[in-house]
Design brief:
There is one protein chain. The chain has 14 helices and no strands. It is mainly α. It starts with 6 loop residues before the first helix and ends in an 18-residue tail after the last helix.
């Protein structure tokens, strides 16, 4: 069956499967680290700091990784990312006494580099596998890759909680490292050799985008992902454990279902953002959807300040936030691939995901620090402000003058 598919589709499936495997271990590792070290008595801020290097190194990796992908090919950067994640997981297999904060931060730094090399490579590759005029097809492929990745990340959250409860931290890490090692070997053998290599060797100074649209979109992305992580990464799971008394299995399952649902919505985002009316999304759509999202964390914060049931507010608010955030994220993911130049696409995509990583960095640190100082409501107010900033920035993004023809949308 696979033999009857076109080479581009086979490469798309291979890239997607590669990305899925990586994302599954990345989500599980995040949940294992948060819950395991919270169980050991670490404060919310200390848990957040364990991910500090993960996010900091992600910022630099996306800048340098985009340049590296354009010079040596996206197949190599993707495989380097897989290998580094295996090493990062292996670093956590040392005796428990060695799992100090600096050691875990170093392992997370390596994992952050690995994750952003893998993601940048996967997203950039899609641009090269879709014919230039088929923007609708490009949107659907990007949405499918991004949505399925996040569904797998949610499954990773669930797996992390279950594995920590059933087999323990070290055994769970060993199982993930072994599985990812097999994926890496298959990727080395099957991934196209010259994928994504630029025709002309880019200079190192080219890592910074010269495109106004990409710079604006990158700034909006920074605030969008800061808005999610400021309350979702550390504050929410610790709040569920300490204030509501949920056990690790329940926390992992709940966050997993949220991320899986979020991924499903991302996959079908083209149907919400203009495909039925003959349009692909533009800057106006980015502004409208961000404005709608900004209302949700603000409303949750106000409800939590009143007499509303905390569990109902969190579950209901998370569901609505997840749907709107997924549409915003999928829309951004399409726009960056659409704006990026064909030659050296990874340079533009890498710069954009640098901003994405910077937003996660700010959000992660604030999630621990603000929650420890002022609680979950303060995190939600900061989230609302960040999304409002993303909406304001999006006003300046390019807008279509007229609907896009059905043939361009790939409606065949």
């Amino acid at each position: 069956m696979l033999a009857r598919l076109s080479p581009d589709v086979r490469q798309y499936l291979l890239i997607t499967g590669n990305y899925w495997a990586f994302t599954l271990t990345d989500g599980a590792l995040r949940m294992l680290v948060v819950l395991h070290f919270h169980k050991l008595g670490y404060s919310p801020l200390q848990v957040a700091l364990l991910f500090l290097f993960y996010e900091i190194f992600g910022v630099g990796t996306n800048l340098v990784g985009g340049w590296l992908g354009a010079r040596i090919g996206l197949n190599r950067t993707m495989n380097i990312g897989l290998a580094m994640q295996v090493v990062a997981l292996s670093m956590l297999l040392v005796p428990a006494a060695w799992l100090t904060v600096p050691w875990v931060m170093s392992a997370q730094a390596l994992s952050g580099i690995a994750k952003d090399l893998n993601k940048m490579s996967a997203k950039s590759s899609i641009k090269l596998l879709v014919p230039g005029g088929r923007q609708g097809t490009l949107f659907r492929w990007v949405a499918a890759l991004t949505g399925s990745k996040n569904a797998l990340k949610g499954l990773g959250f669930f797996a992390g909680g279950v594995l920590l409860t059933t087999v323990g931290f070290s055994t769970a890490i060993a199982m993930m490292a072994g599985g990812l090692l097999l994926v890496w070997l298959l990727s080395l053998a099957l991934l196209k050799r010259d994928l994504g290599k630029a025709k002309s060797k880019p200079k190192f100074r080219d890592i910074f985008s010269k495109s106004r649209a990409i710079n604006l979109l990158s700034a909006a992305r920074l605030f969008l992902f800061g808005a999610r992580d400021v309350w979702f990464v550390v504050a929410l799971p610790v709040f569920l454990a300490t204030t509501l008394g949920w056990d690790f299995w329940a926390i992992g399952s709940f966050l997993a279902m949220w991320v899986i649902g979020y991924g499903i919505v991302q996959s079908v985002a083209p149907y919400f953002t203009g495909r039925r009316s003959g349009r692909v999304p533009d800057g106006r759509a980015a502004c409208v959807w961000a404005s709608a999202l900004a209302v949700i964390p603000a409303a949750m914060a106000m409800l939590l300040s009143g007499a509303a049931d905390t569990t109902v507010v969190l579950i209901g608010g998370l569901a609505i936030f997840g749907v709107l955030f997924a549409i915003n994220s999928s829309l951004h993911s399409y726009l960056i691939v659409s704006y990026a130049s064909d030659d050296g696409v990874s340079l533009d995509v890498g710069f954009y995901y640098m901003a994405n990583a910077l937003g996660r960095l700010f959000g992660t640190v604030l999630s621990g620090a603000v929650f420890q100082a002022s609680g979950l409501k303060a995190c939600l107010w900061i989230s609302a402000g960040f999304v409002a900033a993303a909406a304001l920035i999006s006003i300046a993004l390019p807008q279509h003058r007229s609907p896009v023809a059905p043939s361009v949308l790939g409606g065949d």
